[in-house]
Design a protein that fits this description.
By secondary structure, the chain is of the alpha+beta class. The chain has 4 helices and 3 strands; from the N terminus they run E-E-H-E-H-H-H. It has helices at residues 24-33, 58-69, 73-80, 87-92, and strands at 4-10, 16-21, 48-55. Strands 2-1-3 form a 3-stranded antiparallel beta sheet, with helices on both faces.
Length: 103
C-alpha cells in the first residue's frame, strides 16, 4: 500500500493550504505550476512546503487532513514548528492568543 501524506503549504500571501497526496513532489509541482485555475493556491504562488507527515492508513490521513484544515493559524504554526506540546493549549484558547510576556 502506498503512503499518503498530509502537507501544509505556505502561500505568497502568508496563508496556509492543507492538502493530502500520495506524491509530495508531484503535488508541490502542480501547485507551483498553477495547474488548476480555481485552486486556492493558484493566485497565491509561489508556495513553499512547510510541513508533511506520512500515513500508512488512508482513513487516518483523511481524518488528520480534515482536522488540520479546521485549525486556526496559531495551531497550524505550532504543528509546522514541531511544537506538538502546544496543541492542547491552543485547542482550549478562544479568540486572540494571550501574550506570554511578563509584566
Amino acid at each position: 500500500m502506498k503512503q499518503l501524506f498530509v502537507y501544509i503549504l505556505k502561500c505568497s500571501d502568508h496563508s496556509y493550504y492543507v492538502g493530502l497526496t500520495n506524491d509530495l513532489q508531484r503535488r508541490l509541482n502542480e501547485h507551483q505550476e498553477g495547474m488548476y485555475k480555481k485552486a486556492y493556491t493558484f493566485k497565491r504562488r509561489p508556495v513553499e512546503m512547510v510541513f508533511s507527515i506520512p500515513f500508512q492508513d488512508p482513513q487516518q490521513a483523511i481524518n488528520f487532513e480534515k482536522q488540520v484544515k479546521g485549525w486556526r493559524r496559531e495551531k497550524k504554526e505550532a504543528l509546522i514548528n514541531g511544537r506538538w506540546d502546544l496543541l492542547p493549549e491552543l485547542s482550549a484558547i478562544r479568540g486572540p492568543i494571550p501574550s506570554r510576556t511578563s509584566g
